[in-house]
Amino acid sequence: MTNNNFNPTLDYAKSLDENDSLSSFKKRFYPLENNQIYMDGNSLGLASIDAEKALLRVMEVWKKQGILIWNTDEGYYFNYGKKLGARLAKLIKANSDEVIVTANTTLNIHQIIATFWKPTKQRYKILVDDLNFPTDRYAIDSQIKLKGMQVEDVIKVVSSKDGMFLDEQSIIDAMTEDVAIVLLPSVLYRSAQLLDLDKLTKEAHRRGIIIGFDLCHSIGAVEHDFNLVQPDFAIWCNYKYLSAGPGATAGIYVNRKHFGREIGLAGWFGNSDETQFELKHNFEQAADIKAFQTGTPNMFSMAPLEGILDIYQEAGMDRIRKKSLMLTAYLMYLIDHKLSQWGYSYISQQQDECRGGHVALVHKQAYRICLALKERNFIPDYREPDIIRLAPVALYNTFEEVYLLVEELALIAQDQVWEKYSTHKSIVT
Fold first, then answer.
1. Does residue 37 belong to any structural domain of this protein?
2. Distance between CA atoms of 46 and 344, rounded to whole angstroms?
3. 233-242 tens-digit pLDDT
4. Fewest CB atoms within 10 Å of the CB: 39, 206, 303, 389?
């Protein structure tokens, strides 16, 4: 899909909405106060009626059953992480037993590195990039230090040539004989570049290297096929496109060929079901994905995901991805036709196969423009140094909202409205 197949009128945007097969899902999400137009679903998705119902369901079971919640429905909540994981697996076309909902993204990276990184004299380096979200590096660096090694001796960084995109051939060239493990983002959180996971995985495996991906900025917006790609692992959060709520419990995928590998961070919920409540002091590791759990699951941070997965099951990832690509292509088209004269540009790529679910709008006054947008009932996202991230989400954003956003961006620039706002950054930008 190119961004030349559209029309720059409001009537055209409305016609796209009239033909939108996903339009009915918008009413399943709660609107914000003052009917703000939300374009920040790649940071935190909106609350849905389905998520709320699922959370209240767990509350009711707790109220009525107390400790017996663990036995309700033949141990449904005791195995909640695996039950939700099996449903999540459908979104990335993985086997139902290869995904579990547990912990948070950073702790899951610690778990993955502690489990998969077994440095030897010949293979000890960890290959990363310089554009990934920093929590990935924080966790990896911590794991290196815990082994008494020096970060600069272990980490191998593939640097971006332009600060916006990664060159896949440079990544492949860096997969040398001393590399033990690779962790890369599926979609770059600034530029929305979508990497070719299949190509990278095949090249890593050809060299005997373990490889995995951070799906935080792709899951729920991009179709993945892990039965085809066969990476070794993946980690992600569930509160962005998946709208499972702030701080929602995260997800782990582990290829079943690695089941039985000694877990790096052991905890009692990673113990075998058969002996977990015998409370032995010797850890008897579960034989499947359950081993990657540590402490008791947080029911209230998991339940909203169950509700949103009902919506995803009804909508289908194929339709969600198709509309997401149309929304972002339409946004880039309008930027080209209505905003370029006012100093706006974008760094997201036009090719569908190279773009995630958001558009990285660039302007030298980006931060103050974001403040102006919020005062005008539009919710964007800012990233240093000059990027306004705009994520129209297929399940609850409309083409008309994209049109109105672009019109507002033009007015802000025409009148240089940003002049009234401070350059001082708030804690959360």
1. no
2. 27
3. 999 999 999 9
4. 206
